[in-house]
Design goal:
Keywords: Membrane, Transmembrane, Transmembrane helix. By secondary structure, the chain is of the alpha+beta class. The chain contains 2 helices and 9 strands, in the order ββββββαβββα.
Length: about 130
């Protein structure tokens, strides 16, 4: 159960995984903390590998005996994304990290989410 704002409180401006931002607070699974002074970081450990697909190898073995065009199946490539993209928030008395699966657009999405979070944090009033 996540402690999201109840009705009648501040609206959530941005949601990043299990982290929510209002104009004055960051809401995490383990509590609600003041947003002023929070620092946001992103770490992309995505590894991209490209190899000949299994289907391409099987089709090459089958069709190489019928015609030499079967060798063209070796050009079939398969791209795999390994690792993760993590977004962290640190502030006075709290630290939280959310991890997301890698993909062709994950780095751009994470950078855009961090830019929005930093803009909201910069506009947050000091905690009284």
């Amino acid at each position: 159960m996540y402690p999201y704002p109840q009705s009648g409180t501040e609206p959530v401006l941005l949601q990043i995984g299990d982290m929510s931002l209002t104009s004055t607070h960051v809401i995490l699974p383990h509590g609600q903390y003041p947003l002023h002074g929070a620092q946001w970081t992103v770490h992309d450990s995505t590894q991209i590998t490209e190899s000949i697909s299994t289907a391409g190898i099987i089709l090459t073995v089958i069709f190489v005996w019928f015609c030499l065009l079967g060798l063209l199946f070796l050009l079939m490539k398969e791209t795999r994304y390994l690792g993760f993209v993590s977004i962290s928030v640190t502030g006075p008395g709290f630290h939280h990290t959310a991890q997301f699966p890698p993909g062709p657009q994950s780095s751009a999405w994470a950078a855009q989410a961090i830019a929005q979070a930093r803009a909201i944090t910069a506009a947050a009033p000091p905690y009284a």
